[in-house]
Every structure is written in structure tokens, then in C-alpha cells.
Amino acid sequence: MPLVAPNKARLVTLQDILGATFRVPAFQRLYAWGMPQWESLINDLIETQAISKPLFLGMCVLSNTGDEYEVIDGQQRLTTLAILLSALQDTSIVRRFDDGRSELFIIPQEPDGVWLKKLFNREQVGIPSRYSQKLLYDAHMFFEQRGDCVTAEHIKKSQMILYCSEDLQGGTSLFERVNMRGREVANIDLVKNRLFDWSSKITNACIRSALEGEIKDRFQAIFRNLNPFSDEGEVDPDSFLRNHWILFDPEYTKTTDFSNMVQEVDDFLRKRTLDYRNDEIKFFNEISNSVRDYIHSLEEVSILWRKVTAPRHNIIDYQPLQDALVSFNRLRREANFLPILIAALKQWGERPDTVTFVKLVEIVCFREVLVHSQSNKSRTAKWSIAKRIFRKDLKLRDAVHELFWEACPWWDMEEVKRLDPQSAQTTTPEYLASSAFDDPSAYDRFYRVIHYFFWEYGKWLFKAAEWPETRQDVSVQTNDQWDATFRKLEVEHIFPRNPQDADDKLVKDRIKEMRPYLNHWGNLTLLTKRDNASLQNSNFRAKLEAVLEDNSALLFNKLLRNKDYRGNLLRHAWSPNNCRKRTEYMREFANTRWGSAALRQFELEQRVETDAGD
Predict the structure, then answer these.
(1) Per-residue model confidence (pLDDT) at position 547
(2) 474 within some domain
């Protein structure tokens, strides 16, 4: 006898359903619950156990496929309950057969299904390779620590309503209306469900079945592409969905409202099928063609999006391109530039010209950070360029010129006078990127890119002819070092904000002098967490000794003992003069990396007329 008949609902306990098999379809998202949802579940179970009441878990929407049930809504809850019971060493979640086989009552998508089964059987699982597996493992560890607060008996008394839909479309529609617990439903899930809604409009069973199969296959591939490696952190599928839409819809120009992507996709399909409403066959075919166009593009962009956002973990055969994308990602400011980079990879592939273009994007991005340029006009210009690259309407040479002339802030007044003399009269210092190095609040305004800046500074110093003490045969700054140590360094003020000897009259005078320079670029560096904790309020001499002893690999700190670099100390203390002198050397480097000197490779001496083509 089935647990629940088609188009029927039934109130059940977890104990009632442990003998059945629930499978998460491959076209669903993978496990995504985290600490907030785990804590909420265990706290609810503790509270209901204290008053001897079963916990109500809402509705689970299923689709019957013979001997199994496909889970349309409820996979996160059922999987988490199974993990909780496993943590309590309850074996009822694993069905064992006479022939030696065993099967979980809830079977996630592969490869997570096999991995979770090993975890439940206490077999060696190794280090999680994907983020979804890391979440499964972390959930198991969490409940091993907290699970003894509740009994397996009480957990199995938890109640839910099972609803079995007669068809897929009915299940996905109900999913949107009854999702009650856990995370807010992601737009990408709603869009997927809406595509199934559109397929249900096709009354021809063969055409409808073929389209539903295509939607399932494509979303299975998309969710696999979007499942990050375990050390990457969580991926935002809605961000991917928005960036794809910017490229896919040539008419889309909104810069702020992405709240209803379902409506955008709905409108697109409605426009494409409007002229065929009175011809059933053409109407069915146009739905199929339009949905396929969308999901095939979505799958293609999912591959490119992962290459752009996580280049170290994806197969990029051309090493210079991987290096360029890794460098860009260290900025952590990629949101407005993702469409243009995705379009560039799609159109030009893995070749030297693409590397050059990515380097220009990084320069434009960092300049925008320095001038705080986030205008809708600049964003619209970048999106326009991205759309035309995506549609093969813009040559690479023209894309380089348009990106610079339409979206790139000026570096300094010399650059303005050389490239666009007419603008010199109206350009003010706050719109010049190099002026950021005079900003007295650099620590607050540029905190998110300080690590990136010093990383690039260190890379430059190891081969800088001007400073013999920093030259090395091989750079110690590798991608592995960035991940393992560098990005974990802490920002330190060379002259402390709260000096230990603040009661000393000379120090009091220096504090007054240094007040405008405390958060200045010239007063900032990076230290390990240990050194920062022990030295944060020490004087310059103590910091210098510790820095040279323990952080010789940080070349920008090694230079602090060179008086040609920092200037003379005033009574052995760091002063405004030292800040100014050090800042000028930092500005010189910045000019070679992101300034006018860096633009020479792009041949931007004058505007060019753009034309279509590849």
C-alpha cells in the first residue's frame, strides 16, 4: 500500500516513512542548509520534547515514480533529519536487504548520495570535495555535538503532511506555495518551476515529455556546475541567474531591480509565443524552442561563470588566463564585471587577447574602487559592452577601447591632459584614482582591497631594481600562499591609534601630528594575527624589530628599515613625513600596475570608431 495516493495528502510521522524510499531528483539543487537551519531544527525539537508534543515540519511535496517517491519539496528537511538520526547512531535510516545491499531512506543526488551513505555507515569518507558534501559533513558533526539533547524516539514522532502530485507540474507549483521552513526559495528554483509550468501548456504528450526531460537534464548539469569545491564557500545561484539574464536579454537595462527574475523569464516566453496562440502546433513548437534556447544558454553560462568566479578550481587550459582571472578575483569586487568577463570567455576563448582584456578589466575595476565609482551610467555602459560581446557584435579591439573610454576613471591629471585635453577643465581631484593615496581615511574606505594592494606590491618588489634588499630569484607569493596565509593577515597601523606610552609628552605631541595620517595609506601594513595582537600599540622600533624577525617574506615590511624608502625617523618614531614619503613610493608602484604606465599595452591614445564583428 502506498504511503499516499496521487493527488492526496496525508499526515504522517517520520517513523511512518522510514520504510519507504525518497529520491532527490537530479534536477534539484543540492544540499544547502547551514548552521541557522540546523540550530533552528534542534532548538524546535528540544522545545517540543520538553512539552511532550511532536514537532510539525510542514508539507513535503512528492511525485510517485513507482517503487520510489521523488522529493519536489522537503529534501533539505528529510536529509537533515536523516543526518540527525545518524549522529545519534540510529540505524533505521538505512534499509538493509538480504542480499547484502543497503539503501538510505532519503537518497540525495550523486555524487553526494554515495558519499552520505559512507558517512552514515561510519566508513572513511576523506575530505569533502564539494561544498554540498562539506555541509553534509558539518551537519553530521554539529548534531553529534548537539543531538544528545533530544531522543531518536522524539525525532521520529515529528509530523509532516505528505502530498503526492499526479504530475511534475502540479508538484512544482505547490512547492512555491507551501515552502514553510528553512531558506527562502531561490529565484533559480522558481524559474525552473516556471519552465515546467510552460511545458504543461503543451497538450501533445510527446512534445511535453521531451521538453520536461530537457529541462531536467539541463538543470541537473547547471546545479552540478554551480556546486562549488569545499574550500570555496557558498555560491549564490541567484547571482548567476541575474548575470546570465543581463547577457541573454538584449533589451534588459535595469541596474538595481532583480527581485523578480521569474517575471522576466515569463515575459520573455510570453513575447516569443504571442504570435502563435491561434496555431496550436506552432504554439507548442515555439514554447519548446524558446525554453530550450533559454536553458541551453543558462547551462553554457554556468560553465563560464564558474571559470570566472573560481578559476583555480576549474579547468582552464591556458595558464596565463587562469592567472589573470585569479588576480582579478582577489579584488573581491567582481559583481559589476562578471557579465563582461563571461562574455569575453564565450566569444574569444582561452587566448592571449582574452588575457589582455581581463587585465584591462582588473585595472578599470581597481580604479573604480579608488574613486568610489558605482554609478548606474558606468554599470549600464559595461553591460552594453558585455551584451554586444556575447552576441558577437563587438570586436576585441573595440571592446577594449569602449571599456576604457566609457567606464574607466582617469588615473591623474597628466593622463587626462594627454588622452582627453578637453576634459581637463572639468575634471576634479576626487574623480582621479591616484588621489586616493592622499585620502586620510584610506583604512576605512579601502579596507576590502588593502590585502589585494599589498599582495600586488609584494609581487612587484621581489623584482624591483630600485630596492636590492627585496629582490629575489623566485617570488614567495604563490596562489597557495594567498589562500593559506596572506589573505588572513591583519591590517596594522604603523603608528598605533592608541600608543602604549600615550602619557609621554613627546608622544602626545606626535599623536596630534599623526592624527590626519593614522588611517593614511602610508601608515598601513599587514601583519600576522599573532604579531598584530602583541604589537598593535607598540612604538615603531618594537614593531620594526618584530617585523624583520618574523615576517621577512613580506617584502613591503622589509623595506621599513630602509631610510631611503621611509625617510629619517624623528626621535626614532614614525611621523607624517615618513607616511608621505612611503606613500609616494606606493603611488609610483600603483602607477605601473594600474595607472597610466599600465595602459601603454592597450594602445589607447585616441578614441576609435567601433564596428561589429568578431
Answers:
(1) 61
(2) yes
